[in-house]
Amino acid sequence: MDGFGTTSGVVVLAGTNRPDILDRALLRPDIANVCNEAALIAARNESAVITMEHFEGAIDRVIGGLEKKNKVISKLERRTVAYHESGHAVAGWFLEHAEPLLKVTIVPRGTAALGFAQYVPNENLLMTKEQLFDVTCMTLGGRAAEQVLLGKISTGAQNDLEKVTKMTYAQVAVYGFSDKVGLLSFPQRDDAFEMTKPYSSKTGAIIDSEVREWVGKAYNRTVQLIEEHKEHVAQIAELLLEKEV
């Protein structure tokens, strides 16, 4: 919403059937939205009071989107989603610096999500290289579980790979974590029309190489972790399929 004065009375009313293309700043959940959604859920259930169950449903609704249990998904796809989300959950559980797991579900929500793992947000203001490595591994847990337990990979990890790519480029090119790049920082500009980069093609090649190497190491570590705990991954996945939650 750049360009509007902070003191001017501006009211914006808008509607869309494509929430997936909206700026993330417009989709951030807040306490007011959660409370309002919890009240609506309680009213639909004809409840006289708002309970914690209503608040939990409201948080899922605000973060993940509208629940779509009637969405047609094949048994094979549902199984893939279950093992993918279970991989995230198990990887996060056994990684020292990963965010604590809150819940995991394979109930489709919103326009794209076929399931998701939810974690207790990390409130640290600073992150170390070791912490970010574990977060990267946790994010790759779904793809690793598909490879190890199902023997084939799907397109379901696209969003995970996007997060990992951005996170790793930031470590290498912004936070100065790479010995090969050195103590340099090249923050990515928000200007979509910026075509030039503030470094040479040689430096760019080093950054790209470092990112690939770092992601490769994280994925190998994640595959090893999933191999060590594949029984747990299978147990959680089968429970998700059985309970349909």
Automatic annotation (TrEMBL):
Is Zinc among the key words of this record? yes
Q: Where is the Peptidase M41 domain?
A: 72-245
Which InterPro entries does this chain map to? AAA_lid_3, ATP-dep_Zn_Metalloprotease, ATPase_AAA_CS, P-loop_NTPase, Peptidase_M41, Peptidase_M41-like
Cofactor annotation: Zn(2+)
Any one Pfam family here would be Peptidase_M41
Where in the numbering of this chain does the AAA ATPase AAA+ lid domain appear?
30-56
Cellular component terms (Gene Ontology)? chloroplast thylakoid membrane; m-AAA complex
Q: What is this protein called?
A: Peptidase M41 domain-containing protein
